[in-house]
Every structure is written in structure tokens, then in C-alpha cells.
């Protein structure tokens, strides 16, 4: 059954909610040149403790940029709830095990798997063998592309700014599921807009994936949990960002998300 999954997005060392399509530069270049919906004065550890208290499992912590302060904030979140959180952002074969050793339950990887915008199966095999499929989440965040009167979803890397040559499909999910235990999919075109989920993509994810998958992007109402459950046959889970009161939103109450999980687990 569909459940609510938490998130902690970190940019410039702070917990933020960002309009996904505007994240064009590394925060080493200019931390302020993004469109933000929310910037918290509270620490990443504070949010981790909230998720821990309410047992919001599989919460993901995403580092948006390469500042050392992002690593520090992610580490502090892990310390607040060790062996429970998933860490993403800049993950590769050199640092994945380090994050596991620090206390991350799983690592989330995207861009490193796509050198020259092509999926590198050798890299995937090596990373999966190093930490084990049970510790690996593959991020297949994507953008919708129109071609010859039809549309499909293409994996987007580098903060969702660079399109790869990998198109989402059932065969792709089947092949990748041998190397990981979960997928994370941000619909980058609607991420942070609070204007509704990509319903067709959610339905497709329910058809395509045989292992757990979390959808992110556009959720604006507690009723979206019911909608995702219906569209995906209960196979896709949902996370909220800018619409959630935890992050300054006024559309969705965290308390209601917790109640949903208690009634649906």
C-alpha cells in the first residue's frame, strides 16, 4: 500500500525547498541563484528527529551541491537517526561505503551512473557489488520529452539539468532492479511547484517497477496519497516537499501524513 516517505533537501548547508527546474548552478558558484520556496533556520538533525519520532521510514536526505556544509548537514541528520536515512547527492563508488559506515541506511545514486549521459552498467555492477543491492537506491528522476507526437520520460542528471539518453520503461526498471532495492523518481518538471503530481508517470511507475519506488514532485494535498495509491495500485510511495507545513507550506499537514501511514502500514 502507498505510504508517505519523508525528505530533507540540503542546499548551501541549509534545509530548503527548491523549484527543481531552477537548480542550474553548483552552490560553490552562487548559493543564492535558485528559486526557493522555503529556507529553514532549523537544522537537518531537527528534521531527522521529527521523522524518527513519527517513524517515517525510508526518508531521503538529498545534498544539492558540493559545499562541505552540505556534507556536514547530511552527517548531522544521520547521527540524529542512524541506520535509517538514505543519502543522495554526489554519491559515487569512492564515497558510497563511507556514507554507509557513517550510518546511512542506503545511498542514492544518479549522475555518477551516467558518464557522457549514457548509463554505465559496469559502474552500476561495481557499486552494487561493493555495498550490496540492499543498500542501493537508484534515482531515476526525469523530465518529460515530446517526440514525434508522443511523450516519454528521460532520466535527468546534474541537478535535473542534463538529459541523459536513458528513457524510462518497464525493461529498464526490470534490468536495474537486479542491482538495487529501491527507486527514487523526481518529476523534475513539476518539482516544487505544488500544482499537482504527474499522474501518468505515477501510473507508469506502478506498472514498471517490481520493487519499492518513491515518487516526488508536485504533491499538494493529503488526498494525493489516495490518488497515488489508486493510480499505482499501491505500488508507489509519495513524498511531499514545499506543500508540507514542515517546510513552510499550508496545503498539507505533517500530522495527517503520519496518520495516513499508521492506517496504511
From TrEMBL:
GO MF term set: 1-(5-phosphoribosyl)-5-[(5-phosphoribosylamino)methylideneamino]imidazole-4-carboxamide isomerase activity
Keywords, ordered alphabetically: Amino-acid biosynthesis, Cytoplasm, Histidine biosynthesis, Isomerase
Catalytic activity: 1-(5-phospho-beta-D-ribosyl)-5-[(5-phospho-beta-D-ribosylamino)methylideneamino]imidazole-4-carboxamide = 5-[(5-phospho-1-deoxy-D-ribulos-1-ylimino)methylamino]-1-(5-phospho-beta-D-ribosyl)imidazole-4-carboxamide
Keyword Transport: no
A GO CC term assigned to this protein in UniProt: cytoplasm
Top-level taxonomic group: Eukaryota
N-terminal signal peptide: none
Gene3D superfamilies hit by this protein: Aldolase class I
The EC number(s) this enzyme carries: 5.3.1.16
Location of the protein in the cell: Cytoplasm
KW Isomerase (keyword) present: yes
Predominant location: cytoplasm
Coiled coil: none
Involved pathway(s): Amino-acid biosynthesis; L-histidine biosynthesis; L-histidine from 5-phospho-alpha-D-ribose 1-diphosphate: step 4/9
Gene Ontology biological-process annotations: L-histidine biosynthetic process; L-tryptophan biosynthetic process
Entry's family note: Belongs to the HisA/HisF family.
Protein name according to UniProt: 1-(5-phosphoribosyl)-5-[(5-phosphoribosylamino)methylideneamino] imidazole-4-carboxamide isomerase
